[in-house]
Amino acid sequence: MTGEDVIILLPLVIVAAAAVAAMLAIAVRRSHAATAGIALTGLAAALAEVLVNLWLKKGYVGHLAVMDNQALFVIGLVLAANLVVGILSYGYLSRRRERAEEYYVLLLLAALGGMVLAISIHFATFFLGLEVLSVSLYGLVAYERGRLGVEASLKYLVLGGTASAFVFFGMGLVYFDRGSMIFFWVDWLYGQYGPGPLGLVAMVGCVMMFVGIGFKLAVVPFHLWTADVYQGAPAPVTALVATVSKGAVLALVLRMARGSPWAGYYFGDRAVYYSGGVCPSAPVFWILAAIAVASMFTGNLLALRQRNVKRLLAYSSISHLGYLLVAVLVSGAAGATAAGFYLVTYFAATLAAFGVVTALSGANGEAESLEDYRGLAWRRPALAALMTVAMLSLAGIPLTAGFVGKFYLLTAGAGAGLWALVIILVANSGIGLFYYLRVVWAMFERRATEEKELPRIGVATGVVLAGLGAAVVLIGVWPGPLAELVRAWMGGGW
Amino acid sequence: MDTQTAEKTTELWPLAVYAGLVAATVLAIVTISYLLGERHRERATGLPYESGIVPTGTARRPLPVNFYLVAALFVIFDVEAVFLLVWAGAFRQAGWAGYVEIVVFAGVMGAGLFYLWRVGALKVIGGRGEHESGDTDEQ
Amino acid sequence: MNSVSPESGLVVAAVLFALGLGGVLARRNMLFVLMSIEIMLNAAALAMITAGARHHAADGQVMFMFILATAAAEVAVGLAIVLLIYRRRRTLDVDEAREMRG
Fold it and tell me: How far is B88 from chain A (nearest CA, A)?
């Protein structure tokens, strides 16, 4: 690794250094404020460094990683989400536990894992990013040692470890068949051998990799852990699982699906050959399409009968990942742009929703039952308004970010001629409306008795929540600038 | 092919003879001592021999939980050493850049060790895990 | 010294992986479930080595070391979580971990 590589990778270096510094700070003296300060400063510095990198330094790091526009965009998203979660966690943890410091080390490591996934162009970085992200999330999910958190973490760990093994074995098989672990090269070697069907070994390898990736994205049929982990994890950690973990893995899938410039030449018509880089074949296209459809329906239908807000959001996230897979299937620059825009809107709305859950969670239990939200509009109008905006955005109502995101997804899908998927997506948005509006409805109901004392909200948490709400509305009303930004960054190139 | 198998059989017969001799010797010792030896049926005859002391309690005592913690930490640090070995093998090719990298790596590992020492995870006896009832996480 | 063919190595890796997967699905004891995960990860590592041997490259062995190191970390975290559960419930049966439903 040369000095130039270090400069290219500076955002990652800063976060890694902040993690070590936070750990040493804990070893010297335990202080919640100091550790949180180090972690949040590190994340903010890395975020600032991303903006500098955008103008100054991009490029390849050996064969392992690339820092291009897409990588910087996803890293920016990951860091911003981690920063939001970190600030929300500070208020949450100071209400609950005395030993809150290690939480921030794990938070920084989760950010690091997500960033490595964002720059990955090689199985080795894919593997390392996935493991760093997953292992720190296992720790975070179990951080609140109440029995639900530990149980959720065990389920996550057993299924996540199995999924990791599937990914690595699949990598081994693809490498066995193709003799390269670099995404572009694997893709190019397929081109060299002609656009025929994959060999059996590579085909099995591709399917195994998708099993593992499907688990990380929590798409049907690999979604069984989602609701339990969402419910058992502390609310800010749930926000992290819903955003950073899925967003980073999805960015990696986009990179794998984009492939090299040769892909389009060799694979011509997408309807026949999925021009997806590492795993190009018609069966893979149909499997992904089936997964997308199943995720949309399963997520939305199971969410209908949930009375626990965290579980409801879990099933809703399954359907949202189904929507995002449509963009992956479109592939190319159009798909990446639509996915990037949708990711931003999904991140903002999801963080806002879990921000409200976090802000309402006091020392004695989390506000996860729908009952906890009944009449909220009359007790905490600001929080209820934010939750309403988040729910409307997730449902895709006009004048919120979610609507514009869905619009871009539909345009991209229609542009690629995936009409069946587009129609299913629209139908599912209709189903989703029911349960999102049920939460809103509950908040505006009048309630006679008021038994629970609601926790106070700190200044930083308030500012972050207000910012999220403003972002959701602003993107919905005036999407132009963000759309330009996403097109420039996710469209590929430097 | 034929010559090869023949060669192998000629190589193997001393081994068979040796194994037969061992079995015969063991059988002879056991048989002779059974026929000629004394017989006891005292109170402590059937107990395991513990340097002449009568054993107390069971061997299946639960170890303190910190023992497992230290064992897990050992495994992690032990496995990380593999990277040091690989670097040592490629010492000349890696050059100064490799040296800086391995120093950073070792530094991070050292920082981790320092942290573990300070939070008391390395105390096998008297550490945090000893008094389990002191846990505050029962809800 | 005659070498093993890469394909047979892959078959061994596949059998190991299937054994691990079977263990994860069938075992009720959490420790054995963790062991089965470890077996699956090691099967993946073996597949990497086999693939590297087929292409006469060191990449497979590098991946093997990465898998080794991260598998140790993963299982250490798993053991810590199992210990937490054991302290509370006094059992290692995975079926006992089912307080969340729906």
Answer: 17
Q: What is the pLDDT along chain A (494 residues), one digit of tens a residue?
A: 677 888 889 999 999 999 999 999 999 998 999 999 999 999 999 999 998 877 777 788 888 888 888 889 999 999 999 999 999 999 888 887 668 899 999 999 999 999 999 999 889 999 999 999 999 999 999 988 676 888 899 999 999 999 999 999 999 998 888 788 887 666 656 655 554 556 788 888 888 988 899 999 999 889 989 999 999 999 999 999 999 999 999 998 888 876 544 333 333 333 333 444 566 666 777 888 899 999 999 999 999 989 899 999 999 999 999 999 998 888 777 888 899 999 999 999 999 999 999 998 877 778 888 888 888 888 889 999 999 999 999 999 999 999 999 999 999 888 888 888 899 999 999 999 999 999 999 998 877 556 667 788 888 999 999 999 999 999 999 998 999 888 888 876 66
Ranges of each domain in chain B: 65-131
> Between B and C, how many CB-CB pairs are < 8 A?
27
CATH code, residues B65-131: 1.20.58.1610
Q: Which of B63, B66, B68, B87 to mutate to test the interface with C (most CBs of C within 10 A)?
A: B68
* Angle at the Cα of A406 from the Cα atoms of A401 and A412, rounded to 5 degrees: 130
Q: Which of A403, A463, A452 is nearest to A429 (CA)?
A: A403
3-state secondary structure A354-398: HHHHHHHCCCCCCCCEHHHHCCHHHHCHHHHHHHHHHHHHHHCCC
Q: What's the CA gap between B11 and A306, in Å, rounded?
A: 75
ipTM of the complex: 0.92
Domain C6-90 has CATH 1.10.287.3510: yes
d(CA A233, CA A148): 7
Q: Give contacts of C73 with chain B, Cβ < 8 Å.
A: 76
Instruction: Determine whether the interchain pair B119/A27 forms a contact, defined as Cβ–Cβ distance below 8 Å.
Output: yes
Yes or no, beta carbons of C65 and B80 under 8 Å apart: no
Q: List residues in chain A touching B: CB distance below 8 A.
A: 1-2, 20, 23-24, 26-28, 98, 145-147
Q: What does the alpha-carbon distance between residue A241 and residue C55 come to, in Å, rounded to a whole number?
A: 38
- Nearest CA-CA distance, residue B19 and chain A, Å: 44
Domain residue limits, chain C: 6-90
